[in-house]
Write a structure and sequence with these properties.
By secondary structure, the chain is an all-alpha fold. Helix 7 packs across helix 12 and helix 9 crosses helix 12. The chain is globular.
């Protein structure tokens, strides 16, 4: 591809241009960014992907992957049950109930892989920069830790209220999985969802929706889609409220690490409460 800078200055002016162009590190960053945009004209004219229509489509893609993985796991479980001679409807249903605990780790790991692949398709070598994968200050870390409990309590109280009117079909499965060894619960139900869902909902969907529809509408839409992704009506309400808080943290800290941290700790608190429901209802 030909260089976009066709008219180069005389050799005698090179030293003065170098001094002006690279006098500060900020100028160097700007020059590098301008060169990237010049080599890819679409970046300079188009707003970040996706807008609302594409965002809804990407949510269905994310769903399809999760459902496809769960379906494959279920089919393997049925095949194993039939091979062992468990052919009655009750026996197959029992095997599916047992394998549901396995679906959560496999599903959450696939969500991380799916989110990274989707983001990489659009951001490529600028993946970390576009997602804002950067460190936080000590004050930001402290604020993120302090907001976990209030945000979790607010989301859970709203969820409990909605549970009086809306159906829920994930509670039993989550309760069964919460009884698994804690390292497995933390890794697959706290860490993996935090990474996968924050990359997808905040770093990818949220970035495009805020750029295309404004901050208020973009955050509301991203949080709404985040809630819908959880499918379970009661859980979706809590996820929507949690998504609003997570997106506020993402925008104020300008770091994807912050919502990942809060999301992970929120899930850990929720599963800890489930495991200790007798004295912490």
């Amino acid at each position: 591809m030909a260089s976009p800078f066709q008219n180069e200055p005389p050799a005698a002016d090179d030293s003065r241009l170098d001094v002006r162009a690279y006098k500060t590190s900020a100028a160097a960053v700007f020059t590098s960014d301008f060169a990237d945009r010049a080599s890819d004209p679409s970046q300079s004219s188009a707003r970040p992907h996706p807008h609302l229509g594409w965002a809804v489509l990407w949510v269905f893609v994310f769903w399809a992957v999760q459902i496809g993985v769960s379906f494959c796991v279920a089919m393997v479980a049925v095949a194993i049950a039939v091979a062992q001679g468990h052919t009655s409807a009750e026996q197959i249903e029992r095997e599916l109930a047992n394998v549901s605990v396995v679906m959560i780790p496999i599903g959450t790991l696939s969500s991380v892989i799916t989110a990274v692949l989707i983001a990489y398709i659009f951001y490529r070598r600028q993946l970390g920069v576009r997602l804002a994968v950067r460190g936080m200050t000590g004050l930001q870390c402290l604020a993120s830790l302090l907001i976990v409990l209030p945000l979790g309590v607010i989301a859970s109280e709203i969820t409990n209220c909605m549970g009086e009117f809306l159906p829920s079909f994930n509670a039993e499965v989550l309760g069964q999985f919460a009884a698994s060894p804690w390292p497995l619960v933390f890794a697959t139900a706290c860490l993996f969802p935090a990474i996968g869902e924050e990359i997808f909902c905040r770093g990818f969907l949220g970035r495009g929706l805020v750029a295309n529809h404004g901050v208020v509408a973009g955050v509301l839409l991203a949080s709404l889609l985040f809630g819908i992704m959880h499918i379970d009506p009661v859980q979706s309400i809590g996820a929507f409220v949690l998504g609003l808080g997570l997106h506020f943290i993402y925008l104020t800290t300008r770091s994807l690490i912050a919502p990942i941290l809060v999301h992970m700790l929120n899930n850990a608190f929720a599963f800890w409460a489930i495991r200790n429901y007798q004295w912490c209802p």
